[in-house]
Structure formats: structure tokens, C-alpha cells
Design goal:
mainly alpha, 0% strand
């Protein structure tokens, strides 16, 4: 007689190892302003998918693009500031 074995134990046996580490969660937290700015930019583009963008839409896209770029610059500046010792002379 063959036994039918479920794979539930094999699937959930590694669940603890699949959780993000504290370092990964910290990295996500640091990148959250960039993620949110990118979401705003995507929202601005999505609004204009089915119609011709108005001037207000174009301004919204430009502002969202600037915020996304500023968030990326701030992230890079923070990352370079923490990894390089010292400062400008």
C-alpha cells in the first residue's frame, strides 16, 4: 500500500527563512520615499492613458517626475554620506 503524503510540511518548513531580514526591511524603509514618488509618477501617467493630457496633467507629470528625481538624489546622497568617511574639505 502506498501512502499519500502531503507536502504541507515541506512547504511551510522554511517559512521562517523566507521572511525579510532586518537589514532588508531597513533598506526598504530607506527607499520608501523613492517608491512613493515613483507611484505618484505612475499615477500621473495612468490618468492620461485614455485621453490627451491637458496642461494640468502635464504639470502634474512634471511635478511628479521632479519629486521622483529629487527622492532618488536624496537617497543617493544619504547612501554616499554613510558609506564614505570624512567630508568635504
Amino acid at each position: 500500500m502506498d501512502h499519500i503524503v502531503t507536502v504541507q510540511d515541506a512547504v511551510t518548513a522554511f517559512a521562517d527563512f523566507m521572511e525579510p531580514t532586518d537589514a532588508e526591511l531597513d533598506a526598504i524603509e530607506r527607499e520608501m520615499p523613492v517608491i512613493l514618488a515613483d507611484v505618484d509618477l505612475l499615477d500621473a501617467h495612468i490618468v492620461t492613458l485614455d485621453r490627451t493630457p491637458t496642461e494640468v496633467d502635464e504639470r502634474r507629470i512634471r511635478r511628479a517626475r521632479r519629486r521622483a528625481l529629487a527622492a532618488r538624489v536624496a537617497l543617493v546622497n544619504r547612501a554616499s554620506g554613510t558609506s564614505l568617511p570624512g567630508g568635504a574639505a
